[in-house]
Amino acid sequence: AEAVLLLWRSVTSEECLQSLWNEHRGRCYEQVISFTTMVRLLADALLKHKGSGRRAFEKGVENGELETTVGAAFKKLGRLPVKLSQAFLIQSTRSLLQTFPEWAEWKLPRSLRRFRVIILDGKALKRVAKRLKPLRGIPGGLLGGRALVALEWCTGLVVGMRATEDGDANDVKFVGELVPMVCKHVEGPRLWLGDRAFCDLTQPEHFTSNKGDHFLVRYQSGTPFFPDRQRKRRKGKDERGRNVVQEWGYLGSPHNKRRRYVRRIRVNRGDEKPLILVTDLLDADVYPADDLLWLYSERWGIEQVFQKVTNVFRLKRLIGGTPKACIFQFAFCLLLYNM
């Protein structure tokens, strides 16, 4: 606990927070409530007052830290720019990585050890409070924005986020913006890992935009696969005794200029639907199917991150009522998780 508090004090120093604010504040401004004060009050709400922003703000007024009304604090939280929330998570995590010991990193199978594995997934921010009296008691939930999140497997840390105020937005359209953010802070080569939502002809272009980067995604039938008839299929069994078929071919129709030569791995799972993966790691001897199947099973780790952020760090109780406020709280909770 002491170590976490020391990290928190270092990462959220007044100098660091002021620098973030100056660079990413956009058209926002400071008068009475500074960004540093808002961060400290939100920390009190999440860590001391069981997610109650009102209680934290009232305590701030009592002890003189908040020199204005509780309502003004809620409005300030509701206006924080999305870019500021993204930078708050990314820059603070970058500072954390400077203290991360190499011996503590998780080890990949030998065939994949040269890569930094980045797992992508989207998260909708739910359970926004219905503060308007006429809406209370009416069924149906409100969305407080959405975010595409990047998790680095070797460290277990969230290293990037691209958020939007539109809670119904499609996550994959933000891949092109998130990839450069991650590449600035995570050295390559990188192996991008995603579910079937990322299996199209656009996302592989983003994943491989940097030399040496590759991808592994789950196949979805909306993007057709055309086997290479001149290359023989390879059959075998995985570590659990299931039948595995590997084949090579093109993702995308012959008429599409963006179609890509890939390797497809199909695992028969009895009564369940087969698990089908697609990758541009074409050499089956250098990158065995067993290693790739194991790695894809690790994709579930990002779902566990979302679960912990919601249940442990109180994202289930959203403090603000605007998408901007919800996104900042989400970034805040992800940073607490990283610590």
The average pLDDT value, as a whole number, equals: 93
Provide the succession of SSEs.
HHHHHHEEEHEHEEEEEEHHH
Q: Quickly give the structural class.
A: alpha+beta
Question: What is the total tally of β strands?
Answer: 10
Question: Biggest β-sheet, characterized?
Answer: 10 strands, mixed
The portion of residues forming beta strands comes to 15-25%
Poorly predicted runs: none
What value does the Rg take, in angstroms? 22 Å
> Could you give the distance between the termini?
10 Å
Written description of the protein model:
The termini are close together. Helix 2 crosses helix 6, helix 3 packs across helix 4 and helix 10 crosses helix 11. The longest helix has 16 residues. The protein is α+β, with helices and mostly antiparallel strands and about 350 residues long.
Summarize the structure.
With 339 residues, the chain is an alpha+beta fold. The chain is 36% helix and 19% strand.
Labels describing this entry:
36% helix; 11 helices; 339 residues; alpha+beta
